[in-house]
Amino acid sequence: MTKRNSLILVGLLIAGVVAVSSAWLASSHPDGLERVAEDKGFIDTAEDPGYEILPDYTIPGIDGEISTALAGIVGVAIMLGVGLGAGYLLRRRSEDGADPDHPQRA
Predict the structure, then answer these.
(1) pLDDT tens-digit series, residues 14-68
(2) 77/62 Cα distance (integer angstroms)
(3) For residues 73 and 16, is the Cβ–Cβ distance under 8 A?
């Protein structure tokens, strides 16, 4: 295993541990914006989004902290996919020579 792959694996492991442990450490109190809306009395005027991937940081149909932990892992996986996809596209663009300001390395 290369040094780069080892670093990626360690980063994923850390992200997974943080995602799972944050489920048990998360506050049940509303966040800042939600608290202000409650205090000022306009929380009832809020509209739901058109769709929710992970509503309230949970996975529908699963109860308790395990749902939040799994939602964290899903979030890490989604961001990993986005990051890898962006890296692939940028690398491919660089290899195609589409960026004349940054010549390819020999």
Answers:
(1) 988 887 787 777 777 778 888 899 899 998 998 888 888 888 888 989 988 888 8
(2) 19
(3) yes
